[in-house]
Write a structure and sequence with these properties.
This is Heme-binding protein. It comes from Rhodococcus jostii. InterPro entries: GlcG_carb_metab_protein (IPR052517), PduO/GlcC-like (IPR005624), PduO/GlcC-like_sf (IPR038084). This protein is of the alpha+beta class and about 140 residues long. The chain is built from four helices and four strands. The chain has a four-stranded antiparallel β-sheet with strand order 2-1-4-3. The chain is globular and about 40 Å long.
C-alpha cells in the first residue's frame, strides 16, 4: 500500500507567512513565523524587524510540534502540565516539542499538509498571528 501525502508548497508557505506578517504588524507584535511541510521540515521562515532572536527556534519548533502531533500547541499544552496525560512531552524529540500557544496545523481538504509556528509576542498575540496565517491557506 502506498500513501500519498499532499504538502504545502513554497508559494503556500509564503502566502501563509505574508498573512501572518500583516496581522503581526496590525497588532504591533514583531514575530518569527515559520511554516513546515507535511514531513515537519522547514519550508519558509521570517523574522520580522524587532522580533526576538530566541524566538526563531521557538517558532520553528512550534510548527514542527503542530505537524508532528497534528494538534495545535495550545491544545497540547492543555494536557501537558503536571498530572496531564502528556506531562513531560516537551522533553521528547530532542526538546523540539513546544507547549506554548502559537503552533497550528495547516489543513487542506481535511488532510494535514504542514503547520505554522509563531513566536515573539504573548501567547494571545502568537495565537492571533497564527490564526491569521492559517486562514490564508
Amino acid at each position: 500500500m502506498t500513501v500519498n501525502q499532499t504538502s504545502v508548497s513554497l508559494d503556500d508557505a509564503q502566502r501563509v507567512i505574508a498573512a501572518g506578517q500583516a496581522k503581526a504588524d496590525e497588532i504591533e507584535s514583531p514575530s518569527n513565523i515559520a511554516v513546515v511541510d507535511a514531513g515537519g521540515n522547514l519550508v519558509a521562515h521570517v523574522r520580522m524587524d524587532g522580533a526576538w532572536i530566541a524566538s526563531i527556534d521557538i517558532s520553528i519548533s512550534k510548527a514542527f510540534t503542530a505537524r508532528a502531533l497534528d494538534i495545535s500547541t495550545e491544545d497540547l499544552a492543555a494536557d501537558a502540565g503536571p498530572g496531564g496525560q502528556f506531562y513531560g512531552i516537551h522533553v521528547s524529540n530532542g526538546g523540539r516539542i513546544m507547549i506554548f500557544t502559537g503552533g497550528v496545523p495547516l489543513r487542506h481538504n481535511g488532510q494535514v499538509v504542514g503547520a505554522v509556528g509563531v513566536s515573539g509576542g504573548t501567547g494571545e498575540q502568537d495565537k492571533t498571528v497564527a490564526e491569521a496565517a492559517v486562514a490564508a491557506l
